[in-house]
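[job 4471] stage=fold_predict status=RUNNING
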Amino acid sequence: MPLAVMPNYIPTEREVLRCIYSMYETSFPVEGQGVGKVWVEIDVESVAKKLGCNKHILFGYLYSYLDHKYQYRTGGNAAVHLFAPRAGELRHAINLPYLAAILARQNQEHSKFMWSLGISLVALALSVGAIIAQIVTAR
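[job 4471] inference complete, writing C-alpha coordinates
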Protein backbone atom coordinates (compact mmCIF):
# COMPACT_ATOMS: atom_id res chain seq x y z
CA MET A 1 0.00 0.00 0.00
CA PRO A 2 1.51 3.38 -0.94
CA LEU A 3 2.45 5.76 1.86
CA ALA A 4 -0.11 8.32 0.74
CA VAL A 5 -2.90 5.84 1.52
CA MET A 6 -1.46 4.63 4.84
CA PRO A 7 -3.37 5.84 7.87
CA ASN A 8 -1.57 8.11 10.30
CA TYR A 9 -2.16 5.61 13.08
CA ILE A 10 0.61 5.28 15.65
CA PRO A 11 0.24 2.07 17.67
CA THR A 12 0.94 1.95 21.37
CA GLU A 13 3.97 0.16 22.75
CA ARG A 14 1.78 -2.64 24.05
CA GLU A 15 0.04 -3.05 20.67
CA VAL A 16 3.38 -3.29 18.86
CA LEU A 17 4.80 -5.86 21.28
CA ARG A 18 1.59 -7.93 21.32
CA CYS A 19 1.43 -7.95 17.52
CA ILE A 20 5.06 -9.04 17.11
CA TYR A 21 4.70 -11.69 19.80
CA SER A 22 1.52 -13.14 18.30
CA MET A 23 3.05 -13.20 14.81
CA TYR A 24 6.36 -14.80 15.82
CA GLU A 25 5.79 -16.84 19.00
CA THR A 26 5.79 -20.06 16.97
CA SER A 27 9.28 -19.18 15.66
CA PHE A 28 10.70 -19.86 19.10
CA PRO A 29 12.75 -21.69 20.25
CA VAL A 30 15.29 -20.99 17.57
CA GLU A 31 16.82 -24.21 16.27
CA GLY A 32 20.28 -24.68 14.79
CA GLN A 33 22.69 -21.84 14.12
CA GLY A 34 21.44 -18.66 15.74
CA VAL A 35 22.74 -15.59 17.47
CA GLY A 36 22.36 -16.65 21.08
CA LYS A 37 19.30 -18.60 19.88
CA VAL A 38 16.99 -15.88 21.20
CA TRP A 39 16.82 -13.66 18.12
CA VAL A 40 13.96 -14.07 15.67
CA GLU A 41 13.89 -12.30 12.32
CA ILE A 42 10.73 -10.24 11.83
CA ASP A 43 9.19 -8.74 8.73
CA VAL A 44 8.72 -5.10 9.74
CA GLU A 45 6.54 -4.46 6.70
CA SER A 46 4.13 -7.30 7.62
CA VAL A 47 3.94 -6.17 11.23
CA ALA A 48 3.28 -2.58 10.14
CA LYS A 49 0.58 -3.77 7.75
CA LYS A 50 -1.11 -5.78 10.51
CA LEU A 51 -0.95 -2.76 12.85
CA GLY A 52 -2.12 -0.39 10.11
CA CYS A 53 0.87 1.92 10.41
CA ASN A 54 3.83 3.10 8.36
CA LYS A 55 6.70 0.58 8.15
CA HIS A 56 9.35 3.30 8.46
CA ILE A 57 7.72 4.72 11.57
CA LEU A 58 7.49 1.21 13.04
CA PHE A 59 11.17 0.51 12.34
CA GLY A 60 12.17 3.81 13.97
CA TYR A 61 9.87 3.09 16.91
CA LEU A 62 11.48 -0.32 17.44
CA TYR A 63 15.06 0.79 16.85
CA SER A 64 15.22 4.33 18.22
CA TYR A 65 12.71 4.17 21.04
CA LEU A 66 11.84 0.68 22.28
CA ASP A 67 15.35 -0.78 21.98
CA HIS A 68 16.83 2.25 23.70
CA LYS A 69 14.17 2.13 26.44
CA TYR A 70 14.65 -1.57 27.24
CA GLN A 71 18.33 -2.24 26.60
CA TYR A 72 20.50 -2.74 29.66
CA ARG A 73 24.19 -3.27 30.27
CA THR A 74 25.41 -6.63 31.49
CA GLY A 75 28.94 -5.45 32.23
CA GLY A 76 31.78 -4.08 30.18
CA ASN A 77 30.65 -3.33 26.65
CA ALA A 78 27.96 -6.03 26.61
CA ALA A 79 24.26 -5.17 26.57
CA VAL A 80 20.94 -6.93 26.16
CA HIS A 81 18.86 -5.46 23.33
CA LEU A 82 15.21 -5.85 22.43
CA PHE A 83 15.63 -5.10 18.71
CA ALA A 84 18.58 -5.13 16.33
CA PRO A 85 18.66 -4.08 12.67
CA ARG A 86 21.22 -6.86 12.20
CA ALA A 87 21.98 -9.81 14.47
CA GLY A 88 24.45 -12.08 12.74
CA GLU A 89 22.76 -13.17 9.51
CA LEU A 90 19.35 -11.98 10.68
CA ARG A 91 17.83 -8.71 9.52
CA HIS A 92 15.36 -6.87 11.76
CA ALA A 93 15.74 -9.24 14.68
CA ILE A 94 13.77 -9.23 17.91
CA ASN A 95 14.88 -10.83 21.18
CA LEU A 96 11.68 -12.85 21.61
CA PRO A 97 12.14 -14.10 25.20
CA TYR A 98 12.93 -10.54 26.32
CA LEU A 99 9.91 -9.23 24.41
CA ALA A 100 7.75 -11.85 26.16
CA ALA A 101 9.03 -10.72 29.57
CA ILE A 102 8.33 -7.06 28.79
CA LEU A 103 4.88 -7.93 27.46
CA ALA A 104 4.08 -10.02 30.55
CA ARG A 105 4.93 -7.05 32.77
CA GLN A 106 2.82 -4.72 30.63
CA ASN A 107 -0.10 -7.16 30.74
CA GLN A 108 0.17 -7.31 34.53
CA GLU A 109 0.17 -3.50 34.76
CA HIS A 110 -2.77 -3.31 32.35
CA SER A 111 -4.70 -5.84 34.44
CA LYS A 112 -4.06 -3.83 37.63
CA PHE A 113 -5.24 -0.69 35.86
CA MET A 114 -8.42 -2.36 34.62
CA TRP A 115 -9.24 -3.71 38.10
CA SER A 116 -8.68 -0.28 39.64
CA LEU A 117 -10.82 1.35 36.97
CA GLY A 118 -13.58 -1.23 37.46
CA ILE A 119 -13.60 -0.75 41.23
CA SER A 120 -13.64 3.03 40.78
CA LEU A 121 -16.59 2.81 38.40
CA VAL A 122 -18.51 0.61 40.83
CA ALA A 123 -17.78 3.09 43.65
CA LEU A 124 -18.93 5.95 41.43
CA ALA A 125 -22.15 4.11 40.54
CA LEU A 126 -22.83 3.42 44.22
CA SER A 127 -22.22 7.08 45.09
CA VAL A 128 -24.54 8.30 42.35
CA GLY A 129 -27.12 5.74 43.46
CA ALA A 130 -26.85 6.94 47.05
CA ILE A 131 -27.24 10.59 45.97
CA ILE A 132 -30.30 9.73 43.87
CA ALA A 133 -31.81 7.69 46.72
CA GLN A 134 -31.27 10.57 49.15
CA ILE A 135 -32.88 13.08 46.74
CA VAL A 136 -35.88 10.78 46.16
CA THR A 137 -36.45 10.09 49.87
CA ALA A 138 -36.01 13.76 50.86
CA ARG A 139 -39.13 14.78 48.89
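[job 4471] summary: Helices lie at 13-24, 44-51, 55-70, 96-138.
[job 4471] exit 0
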